[in-house]
Write a structure and sequence with these properties.
Blueprint (H helix, E strand, L loop, with lengths): L4 H27 L4 H24 L14 E4 L4 E5 L9 H10 L12 E11 L5 E12 L5 E2 L3
Parallel strand pairs: 2-3
Antiparallel strand pairs: 1-2, 3-4, 4-5
């Protein structure tokens, strides 16, 4: 789990600032300053910023970049076991597998409602049909196990 050192440093400085503000706030209450209640808000907000910076730095994970992949948008995600990405018309055959792998590896497992932890990822393209309508054509499909991160072939 990679951490962002800049956010950790910002969290440390904000934490020290909130500690100092807490002391000033206590002093303000002790001496009856008129801005003592504003100091409560400033101290609370600074503490919240410090906690947020540290939490985001710890939980951040960068996107996976696969060599040869093209960025394709996810057009359907049922929040469970199916994700569909749209391939551009000019996507080469060599870029299909890396693009599909990149979409699958960038899926996050938290909050997905799957029984077995497997998510099917499909890469599809819309192609014109003979009768003047458009039909989707699945170019490639892969399953990802969210528990261990393995990519599996489709069923």
């Amino acid at each position: 789990m990679p951490t962002d050192p800049i956010l950790l440093e910002a969290g440390r400085w904000l934490g020290m600032a909130s500690g100092l503000l807490f002391v000033v706030m206590l002093l303000g209450f002790r001496l009856g300053w008129g801005l003592r209640f504003r100091l409560v808000g400033v101290t609370s907000f600074t503490t919240l910023l410090a906690i947020s910076c540290v939490a985001f730095a710890i939980s951040y994970s960068p996107r996976v970049l696969v060599p040869g992949a093209v960025a394709v948008p996810v057009v359907f995600d049922n929040g469970g076991d199916l994700v569909i990405a749209a391939a551009p018309v000019d996507l080469s055959d060599e870029a299909v597998a890396p693009s599909l792998e990149q979409v699958a590896r960038n899926l996050r497992g938290s909050g997905r409602a799957t029984r077995d932890g497997l998510v099917t990822v499909r890469l599809r393209r819309i192609e014109p049909a003979a009768d003047g309508t458009d039909r989707p054509r699945v170019l490639a499909e892969v399953r990802r196990n969210l528990q261990n991160g393995d990519l599996l072939p489709p069923l």
